[in-house]
Amino acid sequence: MSQISIKTPLPGPKAKAIIDQDHQYLSTSRYQMYPFVLAGGKGCYVEDVDGNVFMDMHAGIAVTSTGHNHPEVNAAIEAQTKRYLHNCGNVFYNDSQGRYAQRLAEVTPIHNSEQNRVFFCNTGAEAWDGAVKLARYATGRQNVICFYNGFHGRTLGGISANSSKVVQRRGFGPLLPGMHFSYFPREFECPSNPPYPTSVEGCLEYLEEVLFKKVVSPDEVAAIAFEPVQGEGGYIVPPKAFIEGLRRICDKHGILMIADEVQCGMGRTGKIFAMEHFDVKADIVTTAKGIASGMPIAAFVASDKVMAWPEGAHGSTYGGNPVAVAAAEKTMDLLQSSLCANAKDVGAYFMDKLKVLKDKYGEAIGDVRGLGLMIGVEFVKRDNGRVVHDGALRDAVIQQSFKHGLLTLACGNSTLRFCPPLVITKEEVDIVVDIMDAVFSEVI
Length: 444
Known about the structure:
This protein is α/β, with parallel strands linked by helices. It is built from 11 helices and 16 strands. It has 2 domains: 1-54, no CATH class; 75-335, Type I PLP-dependent aspartate aminotransferase-like (Major domain) (Aspartate Aminotransferase, domain 2), CATH 3.40.640. It is globular.
């Protein structure tokens, strides 16, 4: 399995039967972008149940970080399954959880900390909920400042902090109280001349001059929480000055900073954590998705001064499952030995190639942005002289790419995201860019 090969109409007969079964028995809340049914994979390539081979540019939404079926990760999982599958690490000891906790604690950049502590859970949403609980407990305050276009999961706590799509919140109220929203800067303005702040100065001023003076007192704010690179909001990379400004505001008012690194962490941006690009440290960091190459494990990390709550204050039955920990340990080995560097190098190469396509296709591609192998391509159009999002074009690109054997994914209003396995090579990037060139020529 080393090259794209489409052998049947899409979907093929086996895929269609499985899709029909899914539609009959699974929740109607599920959303699939195209009729692909996974049967197996290796590296950046995946095969469907009808024998069609595709190249995977979303990695299960940035989860299969070391690629599909990495032999070293699989071997670590297999070795652990032969020893034992589970004990509840929040009640009983085992011989792996503490060892991996030390590794994760030592690589996580935490503000004003000499010793970090780790809490293991199962998903990014759980990590978010735990981080908010911890911030409230540690400060004795109840309010949290989040940012428009942010995404923090699907639990009640997660959707209370989300503002990327209204469908995630509609019908589920009343939501968690104490969540307030501010503006996140972006350097590419679409739509043009928006009636809200997009600059670093404007966003920071709104936070201090509007929210803190008219909505919520800063001495009642437990945390300012954000994604260092917004994921579902459109792969938005903020200027360094904005993150520095948030740190100053937090320090000024005794507010904790939560960096939600569920999607942008674990090597995705070319460093273990995206916060390292800004030379700023948060007080609490959440991580999940690519942490264990596809096994369900997540965590939040804080200093021992912040994570000082009593026994029983928080818990998880499956958090830190030993099989998932084995995968996470091997994933960390691979990230530190080669994959962070590969994400940085190949990601820069990928960005340069996509910017060439941007120049070639003119006004239809408004922006190419990202860090490492977390790259967004934003599609736009002109409407009465204004630049506006073109989500319809983005969706057409995704569907046409699927027909060419390329699996891609949407985010934001009109952004195509690339978050491939971190093992991707420059030669494979060339294949992707050639396909995108063909697709753009067909739909733009």
